[in-house]
C-alpha cells in the first residue's frame, strides 16, 4: 500500500484546491509520458498507467503487457517530473479561475505585495491581483504589506496565469461598500438608483426606499454619520453626497444639485437638456469647485445641465420671444408653448430644427423654417457677442495681472485709489472665474475709496494723524492686508476659494 503517495495527493489537493481524482489522473498521464520518452515512441496508446485511488499502487502496461516501473530511466523520470509540475499548475490555474470568475463585482481583501511601475500587485492568497494606476484612487498612498480592499473587475484565464484585475476607482466599488455597511441596502430595502463618481474627490449617490417607514438617506448616513463615515474612511476622505431619488426629473435634478437651492428647472426633451435657474448667491454652490457639482449631477440624472441666473434666463427668453414674434404667423401663444418645451434660447431653436415647431406648435413648414432661419442668424450674433465678451474679460484680467506684477504688490495706497468711472464695466459676468481658480470662484473688481477729502470724519482723523507721524505707522491698519498681498505675489500664499459646497 503506497501511503506516501496518498498523503502527498491529499496535501496537494488541500493546498491547491484541486480534486484528488484530477491529481491521480495527472500522475497517470505524467508516468505514461515518461515511459514514451524512455522508449522513444510517440504512440499515446502504447502505454497505459493506472493508480489505485484506495491503496495508491501504480501499475503500467505496454500494449496490454504489464511492465515494471523501474524501467523508467533518468530521462524518463525527468520527463515525469516536468509533466507532473505542468499539469498541477494547469489544474491550479483552472481552480483559481473557477474560484474568482464568480466573484467579479465583489470586494476582496488582500495584502500589497509589491509595485511594478505604477501597477500595484496585491496578494490574494493563492493568487495575485493586479491594480493598474488607472484603477487606483488618485492621491492615495499605500505601502508594501498594507492590507487593502478592492473590487474584482475582471478575471482573465491566460496561458501563463490567471489575471485578476482589481479596482478602487470604479463606481461599483462604492455600491459594494454601501451594501456592506448599510444592511438595508444589502437586503434591497433601500435601492441605489444612480451613482456618479470622480475618484478621490466626490461621489453622488441617489437612493430610494421600498418601505415607507425607512428613510433612505438617513439609513445610509447612519446614527451621527457612523455608516457613511466608515465608507469615507475606506475611500481616504472622498466626499459622498447622498440625494433622494425621485421619478420626476425636475425634482431629481434639484436634489442632485444640493447643497445649492434651485429656483426653477426647465426640461427640453428634444435636446436632453435641463436649464436650471439659481439665484446669484447660489451660483458658485451649484456649479461646485471646477464645475464638479454640476458635472456629477448631470451624470447622476442623465441630463445635460445648464445653470443660469434669473437675469440670464430672462434675457435669453426675451431675445427668443423677440425673434419668434418677428415671424409672421407666430403669436404669443406659440412663444409660450416653445418655452414650455424647454427651448429658452435662440440657439436651442437653431439646434432642434423645424420638426418640433411643426409637430408641437402646429406651424406650417415655411413658417417654421423662417423661425429657425432667424433664430440661427441670431445665434451667430450671440456667439460673436460671447466671444467678444470673453476676449474683453481676458484682456482686462491680463492688464490687471500686469499691473499687479509691476506695481510693487499691486495695491495702490489710499491716496492713489480712485473711484472707477463705470464700476459695472469692471465687474465680471456671473460665470467668470479668477485666473487659475475654480470656475465657480467669481471675482469682482474692488470699488475703491477716493482721496482723503471723500473719507468719513473718523477716517479723516486717522488719515490726518498718520500724516504727522511716521508713514508706516499711518498705514498700520492695512499692515496685515498688505502682508497677505505680498505673500500672494511671491507665491507663498493662496487666495481663498469658495468652499460652500463642502458637505457638513
What do these coordinates show?
The chain is α+β, with helices and mostly antiparallel strands. Among the domains are: 3-100, 2-Layer Sandwich (N Utilization Substance Protein A, Chain:P, domain 4), CATH 3.30.1480.10; 103-167, Nucleic acid-binding proteins (OB fold (Dihydrolipoamide Acetyltransferase, E2P)); 329-393, DNA polymerase, domain 1 (Orthogonal Bundle); 410-489, no CATH class. The protein is 45% helix and 17% strand. The chain contains 19 helices and 14 strands. The chain has a five-stranded mixed β-barrel with strand order 4-5-6-8-7. The chain has a three-stranded antiparallel beta sheet with strand order 1-2-3. A three-stranded mixed beta sheet has the order 9-10-11. β7 (147-157) and β8 form a beta hairpin. α13 packs across α15 (365-406). It is elongated. Mean pLDDT is 80; it is low at 408-504.
Overall geometry comes to elongated
Oligomer: single chain
Question: At the third CATH level, what is the topology name of the domain at 3-100?
Answer: N Utilization Substance Protein A, Chain:P, domain 4
Strand order, sheet with most strands:
4-5-6-8-7
Total helix count? 19
Q: Which regions are unreliable across 5 or more consecutive residues at pLDDT < 50?
A: 408-504
Total strands: the figure is 14
Strand content: 15-25%
How much helicity do the residues have? Answer: 40-55%
* Cα separation of the termini: 73 Å
CATH architectural type of the domain at 3-100: 2-Layer Sandwich
The CATH first-level class of the domain at 3-100 comes to: Alpha Beta
Largest sheet: 5 strands, mixed, barrel
| CATH homologous superfamily grouping of the domain at 3-100 | NusA, N-terminal domain
Question: Mean pLDDT, rounded to whole units?
Answer: 80
Q: Structural class, from secondary structure content?
A: alpha+beta
Amino acid at each position: 500500500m503506497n501511503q506516501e503517495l496518498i498523503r502527498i495527493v491529499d496535501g496537494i489537493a488541500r493546498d491547491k484546491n484541486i480534486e484528488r481524482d484530477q491529481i491521480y489522473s495527472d500522475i497517470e498521464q505524467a508516468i505514461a509520458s515518461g515511459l514514451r520518452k524512455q522508449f522513444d515512441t510517440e504512440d499515446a496508446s502504447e502505454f497505459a498507467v493506472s493508480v489505485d485511488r484506495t491503496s495508491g499502487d501504480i501499475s503500467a502496461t505496454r500494449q496490454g503487457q504489464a511492465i515494471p516501473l523501474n524501467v523508467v530511466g533518468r530521462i524518463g523520470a525527468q520527463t515525469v517530473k516536468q509533466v507532473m509540475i505542468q499539469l498541477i499548475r494547469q489544474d491550479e490555474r483552472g481552480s483559481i479561475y473557477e474560484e474568482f470568475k464568480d466573484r467579479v463585482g465583489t470586494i476582496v481583501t488582500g495584502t500589497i505585495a509589491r509595485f511594478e511601475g505604477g501597477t500595484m500587485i496585491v496578494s490574494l492568497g493563492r493568487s495575485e491581483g493586479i491594480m493598474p494606476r488607472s484603477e487606483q484612487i488618485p492621491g492615495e498612498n499605500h505601502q508594501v504589506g498594507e492590507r487593502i480592499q478592492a473590487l474584482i473587475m475582471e478575471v482573465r484565464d491566460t496561458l501563463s496565469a490567471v489575471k485578476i484585475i482589481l479596482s478602487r476607482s470604479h463606481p461599483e466599488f462604492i455600491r459594494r461598500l454601501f451594501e456592506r455597511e448599510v444592511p438595508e441596502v444589502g437586503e434591497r430595502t433601500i435601492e441605489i438608483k444612480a451613482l456618479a463618481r470622480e475618484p478621490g474627490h466626490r461621489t453622488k449617490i441617489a437612493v430610494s426606499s421600498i418601505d415607507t417607514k425607512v428613510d433612505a438617506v438617513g439609513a445610509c448616513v447612519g446614527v451621527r454619520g457612523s455608516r457613511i463615515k466608515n465608507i469615507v474612511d475606506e475611500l481616504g476622505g472622498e466626499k459622498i453626497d447622498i440625494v433622494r431619488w425621485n421619478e420626476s426629473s425636475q425634482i431629481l435634478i434639484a436634489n442632485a444639485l444640493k447643497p445649492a437651492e434651485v429656483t426653477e428647472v426647465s426640461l427640453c426633451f428634444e435636446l436632453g437638456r435641463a436649464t436650471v435657474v439659481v439665484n446669484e448667491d447660489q451660483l458658485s454652490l451649484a456649479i461646485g469647485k471646477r464645475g464638479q457639482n454640476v458635472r456629477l449631477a448631470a451624470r447622476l440624472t442623465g441630463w445635460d445641465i445648464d445653470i443660469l441666473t434669473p437675469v440670464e434666463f430672462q434675457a435669453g427668453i426675451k431675445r427668443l420671444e423677440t425673434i419668434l414674434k418677428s415671424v409672421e404667423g407666430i403669436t404669443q401663444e406659440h412663444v409660450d408653448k416653445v418655452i414650455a418645451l424647454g427651448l429658452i434660447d435662440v440657439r436651442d431653436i437653431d439646434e432642434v430644427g423645424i420638426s418640433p415647431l411643426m409637430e408641437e406648435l402646429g406651424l406650417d413648414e415655411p413658417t417654421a423654417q423662417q423661425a429657425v432661419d432667424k433664430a440661427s442668424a441670431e445665434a451667430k450674433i450671440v456667439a460673436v457677442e460671447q466671444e467678444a465678451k470673453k476676449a474683453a474679460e481676458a484682456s482686462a484680467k491680463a492688464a490687471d495681472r500686469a499691473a499687479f506684477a509691476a506695481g510693487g504688490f499691486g495695491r495702490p495706497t489710499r491716496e492713489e485709489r480712485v473711484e472707477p468711472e463705470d464700476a459695472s464695466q469692471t465687474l465680471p459676468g456671473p460665470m467668470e472665474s479668477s485666473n487659475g481658480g475654480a470656475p465657480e470662484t467669481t471675482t469682482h473688481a474692488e470699488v475703491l475709496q477716493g482721496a482723503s477729502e471723500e473719507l468719513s470724519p473718523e477716517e479723516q482723523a486717522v488719515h490726518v494723524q498718520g500724516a504727522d507721524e511716521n508713514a508706516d505707522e499711518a498705514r498700520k491698519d492695512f499692515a496685515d492686508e498688505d502682508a497677505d498681498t505680498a505673500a500672494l505675489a511671491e507665491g507663498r500664499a493662496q487666495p481663498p476659494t469658495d468652499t460652500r459646497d463642502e458637505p457638513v
